[in-house]
């Protein structure tokens, strides 16, 4: 059976709405938490999909931005909960427990870091790019471990979830609503971006950089802008992820997480609007159900992944809608 | 800060560097000849260490343990090459990354399945334990000195293999033009399996040697793998000479930075703060080094192609 990709996308959104609502009625708060986790991971992967799917840049260090978002939330909330001042040289703040402020800080910080990492790593391409982004990821990982002021290896616990004006974020379904809305907004932006002149130019820069240059566009600048956007979105997801767990630790910077973000996109389908979303749902479901059956569920994940890479083209969406995948 | 301490730290840096070279040499050969980025190289390092620990546990012989490490890693490498890697040579880098990432998951969890989550221990053989006195009255662990010796010997051996033997000629030809040497009657797929097994054996050897000074545990390979990536990015991907220079640079930077940066910071900070910020900065030292090299030469010190 071949599905139209549009119907398929609508079906996914409807499912993401219906499942948590059912969980509320059936009083299954854990299911809501699981779906929230999937939605946040999807958000991070949509960010990565901008550069991986449209721009063809295989960043193996996107956990950097996820971690920065997480630590932005952790540090701000930590100072707010301990009533200590966060001294930033010329000015100081008492931290904050307000989500919108935290999101803004997370996005700006990860965007800035993405700018500098991009400036360096986009000088290269191919394998060099993969290895350099991976190395930057490790750099932040080790920095977080040695950063004793904010928990070092043990991480930081935040006791109460941050506030959002007018909502009770401690109710799982309300927090889910926030995450789901943000995912929808970002998906909408992704769809617009893909069809915009910028998105088309970025797509062209992946396929034939020389030709893009010939028509007077600077591929480096296009890629850098995409990299910054992508980092900021993944940073936002990191802040939400930290809020979901009320905990940040260096594992948010780990290279495994960078790998998993790529895996999410590959499972769903590279460069497709809903690819990261379905990938994240499948991943979280696998993690949950296989994890219940065996402690060694990563072996099965590995085998599934190998099969997708060796035999599947275009991920699950490609399989269901019968369209070839994007060639990176 | 005495000169003895400085020399000790330089030796430590060299020891770390030559072990990184064993990893990086395989990675860079595999990339140079087959054009493949192999994330699972760290798993082969782990396989070597576990094989050595298991054999040493049964026989008590360190030499047998090293032989087992070489054999197990080479065998695992050859099998992986024939079953999976072979299908990836013409695939885009993204596919190579994912497939080898999947291999890491399978190797790591598989090892945990077989050996459990607790670390194993591999003892330094009696003949090599204890310190030796170097000229100048410096006491230095004999085992670490042996590691430096083995690393340098492998470097020379690898150079001789690549520059002076028939196999080396084929490897170099394979880097330049794989269709041409296939047309000249060289069994290219056998050559690829051989190169992959060679790289794997070197990784396994490094794992076993380092396993005796650290603990042997699941996931031990990936931090080393990523350092080896930094090494070959600095040295230039595909260049064994670059891998050697890069490995020594990274080894020395990391070791010396960890010792001297806090000392340097103490000159203008109080002790506690200097220790903290010095070691935090030292942990980033090699990445700063990599960044500087890349600004200067985007394809690394000895790299030719982008």
UniProtKB/TrEMBL annotation, chain A:
Transmembrane segments: 36-56, 63-81, 101-120, 127-150, 170-191, 224-242, 262-286, 298-320
Origin: domain of life: Bacteria
Subcellular localization, as worded in the UniProt entry: Cell membrane
Keywords: Cell membrane, Membrane, Transmembrane, Transmembrane helix
Membrane topology: Multi-pass membrane protein
Pfam families attached to this UniProt entry: BPD_transp_2
GO CC entries: plasma membrane
GO molecular-function terms, A-Z: branched-chain amino acid transmembrane transporter activity
InterPro entries on file: ABC_transp_permease, LivM-like
CDD domains xref list: TM_PBP1_LivM_like
Protein name as it appears in the record: Leucine/isoleucine/valine transporter permease subunit
Organism of origin: Ruegeria denitrificans
Automatic annotation (TrEMBL), chain B:
UniProt-listed GO biological process terms: amino acid transport
The species this protein was found in: Ruegeria denitrificans
Entry's transmembrane regions: 12-37, 43-76, 97-122, 142-162, 191-213, 219-237, 244-265, 277-296
Entry keyword annotation includes Ligase: no
GO CC annotation: plasma membrane
Keyword Transcription: no
InterPro entries assigned: ABC_transp_permease, BCAA_transport_permease
Cellular localisation: Cell membrane
CDD domains, alphabetized: TM_PBP1_LivH_like (cd06582)
Protein known as: LIV-I protein H
GO molecular function, one term: transmembrane transporter activity
Tree of life domain: Bacteria
Family designation: Belongs to the binding-protein-dependent transport system permease family. LivHM subfamily.
Membrane topology designation: Multi-pass membrane protein
UniProt keyword list: Amino-acid transport, Cell membrane, Membrane, Transmembrane, Transmembrane helix, Transport
Coiled-coil ranges (or none): none
Name of the gene encoding the protein in the UniProt record: livH_4
Major localization listed first in the record, in broad terms: membrane
């Amino acid at each position: 059976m071949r599905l139209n990709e549009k119907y398929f996308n609508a079906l996914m959104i409807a499912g993401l709405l219906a499942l948590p609502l059912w969980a509320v009625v059936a009083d299954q708060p854990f299911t809501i938490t699981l779906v929230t986790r999937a939605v946040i991971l999807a958000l991070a992967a949509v960010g990565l999909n901008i550069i991986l799917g449209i721009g063809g840049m295989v960043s193996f260090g996107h956990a950097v931005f996820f971690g920065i978002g997480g630590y932005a939330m952790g540090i701000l909330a930590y100072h707010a909960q301990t009533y200590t001042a966060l001294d930033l040289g010329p000015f100081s703040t008492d931290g904050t427990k307000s989500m919108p402020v935290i999101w803004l800080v997370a996005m700006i910080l990860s965007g800035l870091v993405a700018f500098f990492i991009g400036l360096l790593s986009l000088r290269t391409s191919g394998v060099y790019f993969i290895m350099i982004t991976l190395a930057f990821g490790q750099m932040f990982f080790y920095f977080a471990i040695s950063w004793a002021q904010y928990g070092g290896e043990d991480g930081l616990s935040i006791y109460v979830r941050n506030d959002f004006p007018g909502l009770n974020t401690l109710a799982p379904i309300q927090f889910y609503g926030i995450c789901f809305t943000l995912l929808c907004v970002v998906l909408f932006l992704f769809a617009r971006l893909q069809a915009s002149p910028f998105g088309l130019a970025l797509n062209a820069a992946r396929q034939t950089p020389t030709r893009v240059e010939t028509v007077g566009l600077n591929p480096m600048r296009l890629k850098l802008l995409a990299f910054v956007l992508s980092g900021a979105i993944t940073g936002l997801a990191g802040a939400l992820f930290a809020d979901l767990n009320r905990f940040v630790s260096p594992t948010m910077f780990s290279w495994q997480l960078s790998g998993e973000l790529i895996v999410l996109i590959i499972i769903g389908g590279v460069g497709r609007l809903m690819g990261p979303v379905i990938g994240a749902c499948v991943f979280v479901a696998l993690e949950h159900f296989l994890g219940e059956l065996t402690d060694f569920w990563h072996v099965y994940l590995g085998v599934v992944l190998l099969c997708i890479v060796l035999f599947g083209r275009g991920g699950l969406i490609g399989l269901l809608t019968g369209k070839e995948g994007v060639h990176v | 800060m005495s000169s003895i301490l400085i020399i000790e730290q330089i030796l430590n840096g060299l020891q770390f560097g030559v072990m990184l070279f064993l990893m990086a040499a395989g990675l860079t050969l595999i990339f140079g000849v087959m054009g493949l980025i192999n994330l699972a190289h760290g798993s082969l390092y782990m396989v070597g260490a576990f094989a050595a620990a298991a054999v040493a546990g049964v026989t008590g012989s360190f030499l047998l343990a090293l032989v087992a490490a070489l054999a197990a890693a080479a065998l695992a490498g050859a099998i992986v090459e024939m079953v999976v890697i072979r299908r990836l040579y013409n695939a885009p880098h993204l596919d190579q990354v994912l497939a080898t990432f999947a291999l890491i998951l399978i190797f790591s969890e598989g090892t945990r399945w077989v050996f459990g989550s607790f670390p194993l221990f591999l003892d330094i053989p009696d003949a090599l334990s204890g310190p030796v006195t170097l000229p100048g009255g410096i006491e230095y662990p004999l085992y670490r000195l042996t590691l430096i010796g083995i690393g340098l010997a492998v470097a020379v051996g690898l150079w001789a293999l690549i520059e002076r033997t028939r196999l080396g000629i084929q490897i170099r030809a394979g880097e330049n033009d794989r269709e041409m040497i296939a047309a000249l009657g060289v069994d290219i797929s056998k050559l690829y399996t051989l190169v992959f097994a060679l790289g794997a054996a070197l990784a396994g050897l490094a794992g076993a040697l380092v396993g005796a000074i650290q603990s042997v545990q699941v996931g031990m390979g990936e931090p080393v793998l990523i350092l080896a990536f930094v090494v070959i990015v600095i040295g230039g991907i595909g260049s064994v000479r670059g891998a050697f220079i890069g490995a020594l640079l990274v080894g020395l930077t990391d070791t010396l930075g960890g010792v001297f940066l806090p000392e340097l910071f103490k000159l203008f900070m109080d002790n506690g703060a200097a220790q903290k910020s010095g070691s935090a900065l030292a942990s980033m030292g090699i990445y700063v080094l990599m960044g500087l090299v890349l600004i200067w030469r985007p394809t690394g010190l000895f790299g030719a192609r982008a």
